[in-house]
Amino acid sequence: MAKSKFEYVRLFEADDRCLPNTWIVVRVDGKGFHKFSTEHEYEKPNDIKALSLMNRAATSVMEEFKDVCLAYGQSDEYSFVFRKETQAYSRRSAKLSTNVCSLFTSAFVYYWNEYFPTGKPRYPPVFDGRTVLYPSNQNIRDYLSWRQADCHINNLYNTTFWALILKGGLTPAEAENKLKGTLSGDKNEILFSQFGVNYNTEPEMLRKGTVLVRRKVPVALPNGGIREKSQIVQEYVDIIGDEFWNTNSHLLTVT
Ligand code: GTP
Ligand code: MG
């Protein structure tokens, strides 16, 4: 069929294919979730319902995008790691980030009332999305370590900050002042000596964030037998040290 004279405008579309043989990470992050969490009365410092909804939305992304081998989430963000050799959308960066971000956002709204009894959010939540490439296994491990260290630092701070306010009766400004210049040991000490809280026994999902991976899980068959089925499971584990990567070496291996 003859092409229209307008066809040439297609040439203005830039080729944004990701470099071959590199880890592709798509990270989504809630826009203005400081406000969104307040408007929806998220519990402070952590709302298990909200974090579980994030995990549900991320599971939807992994169900759809089979080349995501691992996802990591904390607070209002989730990172999706695509296999190094993925050919999804011919590795086109915008296709990957927009599809992941769009599905994550719609799943967040779709499953909202399974976690919040309010029926629907008060206004439509927004997530941004970006694609970042990491060439080496060390780089992708360092990326995930960076996000988990961020989770740890923020969660220790927020746990102490809100204990000082909710249990200690300080104003937010007083709590902020008290924490200025403190190291993690100081915050642990405040939590323990003033509020009897041993930070190390706080729920692991809050201290470590959530890792989503595929695992073979035994499922019961109607005839009484058992079959192994691949399922997306949530784990609240350390991904900074070597142990997780030694026991899950397949995740970093090109297949
Ligand atoms: P942009 O991402 O730049 O749009 O800003 P943001 O307001 O989303 O802040 P950011 O992504 O840096 O941080 C996420 C914010 O979400 C936190 O600062 C909290 O205010 C809020 N948040 C995330 N998870 C929870 C939670 O479980 N409970 C409460 N109370 N707030 C949360
Ligand atoms: Mg945000």
Features:
9 helices; binds magnesium ion; Alpha-Beta Plaits; alpha+beta; 255 residues; six-stranded antiparallel sheet; binds guanosine-5'-triphosphate; single chain
CATH superfamily of the domain at 17-151 and 209-251: tRNA(His) guanylyltransferase (Thg1)
| Number of helical segments with 4 or more residues | 9
Query: Percent helix among the residues?
Result: 40-55%
Q: Let me know the average pLDDT.
A: 96
Q: What gross morphology would you assign?
A: globular
Strand content: 15-25%
Bound molecules: guanosine-5'-triphosphate, magnesium ion
Q: What's the order of the H and E elements?
A: EHHEEHHEHHHHEEH
Q: Which consecutive residue ranges, at least 5 long each, have pLDDT under 50? A: none
Biggest sheet: strands, sense, closure?
A: 6 strands, antiparallel
* Rg: 21 Å
CATH fold-level name of the domain at 17-151 and 209-251: Alpha-Beta Plaits
Terminal CA distance:
42 Å
- Structural class comes to alpha+beta
What is the strand tally? 6
Q: Which architecture of the domain at 17-151 and 209-251 per CATH? A: 2-Layer Sandwich
